[in-house]
Amino acid sequence: MRETQASQLYRPYYVLLNYLFPPEEGYMVYPQYEPPIPSMSVDFKNIYTVRHRSYSVVFFLQVKSSEDLSNISSRQEADLQMQEKFRHIIGAVRIGNLYGVCAMGTKIYIYRLHMGSRQLFRGPELVTDTAPTDRWITDILTPEGQDKLCKIVQHIKEMFTQIG
């Protein structure tokens, strides 16, 4: 497998998000480059946050390199960063479920926070590997992966139309 650096994916993911969440429908994609926490990795977090015209957060995506997928500590760190992002933006969410995606190369893992219960769905917890490789089984370059991501986007848009 050819390794893909995260920086090679920034623009393609930005273009994809603008396609899925078009500005003419009131969505805006905001790239954010967050410096690492001093005690953590030297890796910057590249996160795209999607907001609706009301400034409500509706979706976010974190981009990592494909090589991170083979490293347990990189997966665990990415998982912790995703949880941290959910905690950070929870107050800016007006829809029933907030989806977040962690992309390692073109493989994605989908998180969902149910706003009513504040429960984060992210797969089974494992003692030895809290972020197993098989979470990132969805490849957005395949028709199945594209379909899965498009269904999530459709669900987000449906939730938003229900609240006005």
Q: What does this molecule look like?
A:
It is globular and about 45 Å long. It is α+β, with helices and mostly antiparallel strands. It has three helices and seven strands. It has helices at residues 6-20, 72-89, 143-163, and strands at 27-34, 45-52, 57-64, 97-104, 107-114, 119-121, 138-139. It has one domain (6-163). A hairpin with a 4-residue loop joins strand 5 (107-114) and strand 6. The longest helix is centred in the last third of the chain and has 21 residues, at 143-163. The N and C termini lie far apart (45 Å). It comes from Tuber borchii (White truffle). This is Type I restriction enzyme R protein N-terminal domain-containing protein.
Tell me about the biggest sheet? Answer: 7 strands, mixed
Using the alpha-carbon principal axes, give the shape: globular
Termini distance?
45 Å
Note the run of SSEs as H and E. HEEEHEEEEH
Question: Roughly what is the average pLDDT, rounded to an integer?
Answer: 83
Compute the CA-based radius of gyration. 15 Å
Percent of residues in helices comes to 25-40%
Strand % is: 25-35%
Helical/strand content category: alpha+beta
Oligomeric state as shown: single chain
- List unreliable stretches of 5+ residues: 125-129
The DSSP helix count reads: 3
Question: How many strand segments?
Answer: 7
Number of domains: 1
Quick synopsis:
The chain is an alpha+beta fold and 164 residues long.
Q: Helix and strand layout, with pairings?
A:
Elements: H1 6-20, E1 27-34, E2 45-52, E3 57-64, H2 72-89, E4 97-104, E5 107-114, E6 119-121, E7 138-139, H3 143-163
Parallel strand pairs: 3-4
Antiparallel strand pairs: 1-2, 2-3, 4-5, 5-6, 5-7
